[in-house]
Write a structure and sequence with these properties.
single chain, alpha+beta, three-stranded antiparallel β-sheet, 11 strands
Length: about 190
């Protein structure tokens, strides 16, 4: 190998980790000022009324567009006792729930948990999980890191003009970097 080709190959190989780890920051610039989101309000979209999985209301508190996609925080008002999500996974995001009020039943992998006011649960990326609302009403914060496409998922299902079928929901999950891998949790 000629010396110039060898040096070029070494430089290209040495810079690979830096290039691979660099983030694309072209869609939304990070906010340079703090902001307040009043209680009971959603940022950007207002109240997002879900269809399909449940009929809960989501408020975006911190959008992925605020953080260059690094983080998103939602507040969910739960209005669907006995309903929740199908068993699914997020390919690229970790998810954290914090229960503000009410009671929920979660499955993470093979483990099952009851959560009530003040409890938190961590759902690692690529691990199947689901939750079901037990109480009549409830409220949770949902944190996604990185933000991913969950906000788009919420906006998409709320914009539907009909109650989607399970097949339609699977496609909407897939279009937003999630995969349905089983049915919702049955509460005994």
């Amino acid at each position: 190998m000629k010396r110039s080709k060898f040096i070029g190959a070494v430089i290209a190989l040495a810079s690979t980790p830096f290039v691979a780890g660099a983030k694309q920051r072209t869609i939304f610039p990070r906010k340079e000022e703090g902001f307040k989101i009043p209680a009971g309000e959603g940022r950007i979209h207002g109240h997002i009324k879900l269809k399909g999985v449940n009929s809960n209301v989501l408020d975006v508190k911190v959008s992925g567009s605020d953080t260059d996609g690094d983080l998103a925080i939602f507040e969910q008002t739960s209005l669907s006792p006995g309903r929740g999500t199908p068993l699914h996974l997020h390919h690229f995001q970790d998810e954290i729930f914090y229960v503000i009020e009410g009671e929920y039943y979660f499955q993470v992998g093979d483990k099952k948990f009851n959560l009530t006011k003040g409890d938190s649960i961590f759902l690692p990326r690529k691990v199947p999980h689901a939750w079901t609302q037990i109480s009549e009403t409830g409220k949770m914060t949902v944190t996604m890191q990185p933000a991913g496409k969950l906000e788009n998922f919420f906006v998409t299902v709320s914009a539907l003009d009909h109650e989607p079928t399970a097949k339609e929901m699977e496609k909407i999950f897939s279009d937003n970097e999630m995969q349905v891998v089983g049915p919702p949790i049955k509460i005994n």
